[in-house]
Amino acid sequence: MSFYSFSHYKFFRRCSIAFAFSLTLVFVANSLTPQTQATPIQCNKDPYKQLNLILNLNGTVTRPNKPPESPPASDPNLNTLVLSKDLSINQSKGTWARIYLPRAALDRGYKLPLIVFFHGGGFIYLSAASTIFHEFCFNMAHNVHAVVASIEYRLAPEHRLPAAYDDAMEALHWIKTNQNDWLTEYVDYSNVFLMGSSAGGNIAYIAGLRAAAENDHRIPKIKGLILVQPFFSGTHMTNSERRLVNEPHLALCNNYALWELSLPVGVDRDHEYCNPTVGNGPARLKIIQRLGWWVLVTGCSGDPLVDRQVQLVRLMQRNGVRVVGHFTTGDYHGIQDTEPLKARELYGVMKTFISAIN
């Protein structure tokens, strides 16, 4: 069940875009109203052990179990619905992009929207080559009918924030100037979306704010942001965090440990990288509003972070941003990475969102 119906959304758009956005949050259940509470929690277990991380004295971590990875497949003679290949962005930083091209575009020669995707993993884990994200982007390119550029960014704590945001911005500059045939021949550079899931949603959001502030010819023309269960936090607990404090997919102590390893040394979770409601965060949304970007935020009631996601939607709405909140009941954080049916449902939401604003 969705708290915001896209059938309503499409109807409202035909009548009046402004009216549609004014009613976006009417469909968000009152149970998701974010109300922060200051009582701290006690972490009785070692969160780093639970996260399968070994802390090293030099500030790095050892990641004992590397998840499976998948190679790209760029040969057009392959019997595959989507081709993929890796392109280097910055060799000195080890950053690169995996490009996914639907075969239909290759065969028919027309241009498609570009989705610039940032993977999840708490800023600490995983890669654009990780099998779960390779399969997700492969299927997204096919189902949404878009070119996907999945960005390999540097991980914390070896490269604490804002390193991932810097890599995201460099990737946007690289996309605009890269002369690879897949990008120049099949991408509509006036129809670009920044997207991420979990920590990747955080990167897409912060990079989006930076890109909006620059607003120059060095980056593609961005139409909007797609934030899938974006990863945010703060020093005070929300109701959903308290209710789901030990949720096995994202226990709150593990969440806090990921932020401790990712944020700049010496700051707390009320830093603007982590909490979009503090500092200049709300004011920076005015730039997105002036540019006319659209934003899709998705979440679910089984995610401890859902109240923060709802809070972000409301913050955007108060600042005049054209935002759609799509929230479902049940489920859990990262469900689209492990359950193909949920991923297909998300692709449908995305396709409706993109087609409705074009």
Automatic annotation (TrEMBL):
Keywords: Hydrolase, Signal. Pfam families: Abhydrolase_3. GO terms for molecular function: hydrolase activity. Residues 1-38 form the signal peptide. Residues 115-335 form the Alpha/beta hydrolase fold-3 domain. The keyword ATP-binding does not apply. InterPro entries: AB_hydrolase_3, AB_hydrolase_fold, Carboxylest/Gibb_receptor, Lipase_GDXG_HIS_AS. PANTHER family: ARYLACETAMIDE DEACETYLASE, RECEPTOR GID1, PUTATIVE-RELATED. Belongs to the 'GDXG' lipolytic enzyme family. This is Alpha/beta hydrolase fold-3 domain-containing protein. It comes from Psophocarpus tetragonolobus.
